[in-house]
Amino acid sequence: MTVASGRSRTTWGWRHRARRVPSKTPMRAGQEGGSKMVASIGTNESWAAKQMQRSGSTPSGSQRPPVTTRDRERLMASAAENVVRDAGASAATVFLKVPGTPELHAAAVALTALGAGAVERVSLDDTTFPSSRAWQTGRVEIGDHVEITAGHPNLTVCAPFPLEAATAPIFSQTRRFGTLTAFWVRVGVQPTELERGRLATAAASLARDLDRLADAGMSMAPPRVPHVVAVQGGGARDERLASSTAPLIYHLHKLAMLLATAVHTRDVADLAMERVMDGFQAKAAVLSLVDGDRLRLAGAAGCAKEFVRTLNGSPLARRMPETEAVDRQQQRGYAAGDTRTAGRLPEPLSDQDCFWVILPLLAGQRAVGTLSMAFGVGRGDIVAGQGTLTALATAVGQALERTQTDAAQHALADDLQRALLPPVLPQPAGVVCTSRYASATSGIELGGDWYDLITLPDGQVVMVVGDVQGHNTAAAVVMGELRSGVRAYATEGHDPGVVLTRANQLLIGLETDLFATCCCAWLDPATGRAQMATAGHPPPLMRTADGRIESLSLEAGMPLGIDLATVYEVTDLQLDPGTLLAFYTDGLAGVGCDVDPEVVSAAFDVPGNLESVGDQLIRGFSKSPPPYADDAALLLVVYEGPSAEAQRNVHQLRIHRRDLQGAQRTRRLLREWLAGWELSSMADDEELLVSEVVTNGLVHGDSDVYVYVRKYPEHIRVEVRDSDPHLAQAVTVPREEDQAEGGRGLVIVSALASAWGNSPSGRGKTVWFELPMPDVHGADA
């Protein structure tokens, strides 16, 4: 890595700079102008009391805390450092309790070169750790490597070598702050009575100091990242050098562990920025990602706003430190005052006080982004820790590559999955329906759940829900073939039993070794007559117009794909107007469970608002226990009444995605429909809202748009459906690309409609709103 000066072409070698690291602990960021503060163990007058006396403050008379949060962290780190020295430990950690939670978080760590394995979070309910036992008992507790890793095997990554531990509570007479834990790298030798005594004395002294700070108003909440200091002995120069970089290695180690479990790219960026700013104690940092031929901002802290705006979207062809790091795939360093990094820091920071390190984030043979960091000129540990910075860039780069690849694969799988489902469900006269689909898997796994609603030429309706065994590409392919087959058999006019019989023969003929469950129902909207059959699938729940929930008793046949001779029995039903049928797959309830009828009853609390019912039912899907999580498909159908009568109260329109006159045509037809209902007085408000929602769907949905207008006794309901799964956003400040229509359509809808919603619906979404009838509106006024 090179550090280039703006005034000359002189090159600094990191190795040459490392030789000049002083033997004493280098001053860390935030310590400029001050001396090292040490809290002596067992002294009569504590450090906190001395600081209050020097400032002329007392707890009762203080108008503000006598010391800063950084001073509080140094106080705790000094107490931990003394324990390491006096008790011969490899590391010591001060834990503070997180307010409102049963957890202890590390607030300060003192460590030697072997102390990077300290734990940062401890649950007070987990007695595996001596910290939680010390909190509960108020005594010094001990633990060993075998006991701790038996309960937490993943912690062997933290400390692959054997450890012995002892913890003392940090309790005053009136407060319980946390615990002080010391670690020793040794096998089978428990802490001696002398070591435990010194630990207890240090914890008691620290408790008195923290008590005084708490009296003065200082918060005792732990920081996001612990303050880490190195404990240096009097050994050789190489040992002192290794010790000076121990805090950097500690934070790198913790960051690598956290990145291993990060799921989203946003999580990786947040974790990296947090460690760099709070752990490495950078003055400023910015993380950017390579997006095609440009750099895109992923995170920034401590930087000038103009610099952040300039970096975001910068072409890789533009010469700047970040693009050079990407092009050369090498760390780049820029000395304080270098003109190439001028203007990156806001006031009161000065370019003369900080040098910049630019890391290319590498994944394999390519750079996926950059991490730029500014440090104070006194940070000799950063100069000496070139290897640590290389490891930092590698860890972050590989995590970004993994999460971006996972996100792309998941998006592809999700798109493929949804492409096999109907884009928009038809809304035949006398029937209102909606659907929901939620995936329980990530990566490239595909599920076999599906639903469908088929309108026949004579106006009758067929409803289908099914689930193919497995979570893979084969299951998705079989699902697509079964859905096509069932649709073809139903369109031919067969009853549900025959449809399932032929689907069973189709699946067996595919020779896939997979089976599937399926429920098929037929409805004549003109009369309310219905037929149902099921092939190993749970029957739908039925909610009658008077609010009763009934579990239908159907003759359950064999699942599809098992026995070629299976015959499926058909059950006849008569539906009254207002009946709700809820078809679902087992992922909605969890394997081996039934959907709670009370959930459906509670969800269906607004007559005619089927979208809200679907939202509430699918919301419970995320609460399924992870071991039993499965994809969830939901099809809700309401029989509103005879189609001849319902047809007079329902109008619908399909607008092609390329129809530039679609919004204008919708406004004209809406006025005609309202006039036919003798509701022309509502036309202005209805026209405004419909225009906003339809325009939003055409511009941002990039799909055909379906408009449904329904007249109910109390209100007019409008539903606009499209095939874009991304929910519309209500924004008060439009984006640049939204200037044509203002970008505030949903804000207007929210302000004028008596009720509205924005719901995912299978492959797409539904934006709906309601306006009260003129007489209802007048009565309310």
TrEMBL record:
<feature type="compositionally biased region" description="Polar residues">
    <location>
        <begin position="1"/>
        <end position="11"/>
    </location>
</feature>
<feature type="domain" description="PPM-type phosphatase">
    <location>
        <begin position="431"/>
        <end position="639"/>
    </location>
</feature>
<feature type="region of interest" description="Disordered">
    <location>
        <begin position="48"/>
        <end position="70"/>
    </location>
</feature>
<feature type="compositionally biased region" description="Basic and acidic residues">
    <location>
        <begin position="321"/>
        <end position="330"/>
    </location>
</feature>
<feature type="region of interest" description="Disordered">
    <location>
        <begin position="1"/>
        <end position="36"/>
    </location>
</feature>
<dbReference type="InterPro" id="IPR001932">
    <property type="entry name" value="PPM-type_phosphatase-like_dom"/>
</dbReference>
<dbReference type="Pfam" id="PF07228">
    <property type="entry name" value="SpoIIE"/>
</dbReference>
<feature type="region of interest" description="Disordered">
    <location>
        <begin position="321"/>
        <end position="343"/>
    </location>
</feature>
<dbReference type="InterPro" id="IPR003594">
    <property type="entry name" value="HATPase_dom"/>
</dbReference>
<dbReference type="InterPro" id="IPR036890">
    <property type="entry name" value="HATPase_C_sf"/>
</dbReference>
<dbReference type="InterPro" id="IPR029016">
    <property type="entry name" value="GAF-like_dom_sf"/>
</dbReference>
<dbReference type="InterPro" id="IPR052016">
    <property type="entry name" value="Bact_Sigma-Reg"/>
</dbReference>
<keyword id="KW-0378">Hydrolase</keyword>
<dbReference type="InterPro" id="IPR036457">
    <property type="entry name" value="PPM-type-like_dom_sf"/>
</dbReference>
<feature type="compositionally biased region" description="Polar residues">
    <location>
        <begin position="48"/>
        <end position="66"/>
    </location>
</feature>
<dbReference type="Pfam" id="PF13581">
    <property type="entry name" value="HATPase_c_2"/>
</dbReference>
<protein>
    <recommendedName>
        <fullName>PPM-type phosphatase domain-containing protein</fullName>
    </recommendedName>
</protein>
